[in-house]
Model the fold of this input.
Amino acid sequence: MEREREVELIELAAAGDRVAAGELIRAHQQSVYAYLLRMSGRTDVAEDIVQEAFVRVLGNLHRFDFRFRFSTWLFTIARRLYMNAMAKSRPSYDTDFVGSFGNQSTGWAPDTAMYDDERQTVQRDALQTSLMELSEEQREVLVLFHQLDWPIALIAEHLAMPEGTVKSHLHRGRRRLRQVFQDKKKLGARVEEVWR
Done:
């Protein structure tokens, strides 16, 4: 979404325009949900936090500082809500759903399409299982960098840490993921199977 349109929507939504609020939500909902799903590994947690994040954002639009990016503000609120939720309980995750998230198969497809869907499901499953082995900081940096394509500087600002620390978490997280794949022979075999 272009910056000018986003500013217009924020101003309209802050003034009570429900259509503008809906458009603003639709523009960011999927990326926030994907981020929280990867962080928590649980659909129920991701759904609840996304809903609560948008309730808080819409209730506080009048406080938004236009010098900053709206997405950074939104993700900061979502992250704080996630951290609070995790402090209350440790997550468990449903890899079947995480693996199927984004799988848009709508019926019969040729064998190659079914193979591609299966490969993607196995890859997502293996990735989510591996991500849950990382520290919270490493997982978050990897998700923001690789899934949401955030630059290092924006991640550093969002997490309130130096860019060098973000780079360290990124490097160590990647190295840890490789180690998890090597250590978990079954997981590695599943991934290797789909690459043949």
